[in-house]
């Protein structure tokens, strides 16, 4: 009776010392980070007492094995089978503590102890960092008080696993994005506050005049008309008219009717026809000088080559 009372008080004291952390994780006093969430399983772990009784347990999660005659079965962190109903060894706890460099999980408020009184069953699990254990490892019972299975109400378990080793605290993608967004908002708020204080106390502004403004009118406007005019002049001088002919115009060779140019079977017979072909009627201001038609020797004004 006294052993069970002392053990239970020790477990309750350890549980009260655990500080708030994210579920199933903890930082020790030096900032070392531990994450036991990888031990949370869909299938319960089990361990056996010295007298052969089997217990079922999970980490930071209620047991998945179906229980019998237990209140609040969805909160049971571990239990064993008994003749008159299952016996809970503690409720689910997601708060981890660190003792002597080892993560510690306390589960309390289990079933009433058989010894009597108001004491309830409790369990302490000490996780040992062991990199040689590649899987989750298995819990191992170190002691139970009282030492008989029929009256045991406090359980001390050791669990060797690589999940008990210190690790880095990842923020994840969305966590990083959130940090960047909050930093930008903080900078904007700081800039706005500084601007208001400056305008009010240094410049003597009042009312809406002291609020920060963004000088959008100072942003230069780019006029693209000059660029368009230069391009059109260049294409006209090179004998190109992208709007009319649709593709680059180049001499393809001689034919029976004259020189073929991207769909035209002969050369223009006059200055007026040449101007019309080059789109001078639409863009007269872009053509600085009339087009000079140079005919090969032996070609008449109609564009026919005489042999």
From TrEMBL:
<dbReference type="GO" id="GO:0010008">
    <property type="term" value="C:endosome membrane"/>
</dbReference>
<dbReference type="InterPro" id="IPR009011">
    <property type="entry name" value="Man6P_isomerase_rcpt-bd_dom_sf"/>
</dbReference>
<feature type="transmembrane region" description="Helical">
    <location>
        <begin position="171"/>
        <end position="198"/>
    </location>
</feature>
<dbReference type="InterPro" id="IPR000479">
    <property type="entry name" value="CIMR_rpt"/>
</dbReference>
<dbReference type="GO" id="GO:0038023">
    <property type="term" value="F:signaling receptor activity"/>
</dbReference>
<dbReference type="GO" id="GO:0000139">
    <property type="term" value="C:Golgi membrane"/>
</dbReference>
<dbReference type="GO" id="GO:0005537">
    <property type="term" value="F:D-mannose binding"/>
</dbReference>
<dbReference type="InterPro" id="IPR044865">
    <property type="entry name" value="MRH_dom"/>
</dbReference>
<keyword id="KW-0812">Transmembrane</keyword>
<feature type="region of interest" description="Disordered">
    <location>
        <begin position="272"/>
        <end position="307"/>
    </location>
</feature>
<feature type="signal peptide">
    <location>
        <begin position="1"/>
        <end position="18"/>
    </location>
</feature>
<protein>
    <submittedName>
        <fullName>Mannose-6-phosphate receptor binding domain-containing protein</fullName>
    </submittedName>
</protein>
<keyword id="KW-0813">Transport</keyword>
<keyword id="KW-0472">Membrane</keyword>
<dbReference type="GO" id="GO:0005770">
    <property type="term" value="C:late endosome"/>
</dbReference>
<feature type="domain" description="MRH">
    <location>
        <begin position="22"/>
        <end position="167"/>
    </location>
</feature>
<keyword id="KW-0732">Signal</keyword>
<dbReference type="GO" id="GO:0007034">
    <property type="term" value="P:vacuolar transport"/>
</dbReference>
<keyword id="KW-1015">Disulfide bond</keyword>
<dbReference type="Pfam" id="PF00878">
    <property type="entry name" value="CIMR"/>
</dbReference>
<keyword id="KW-1133">Transmembrane helix</keyword>
<keyword id="KW-0675">Receptor</keyword>
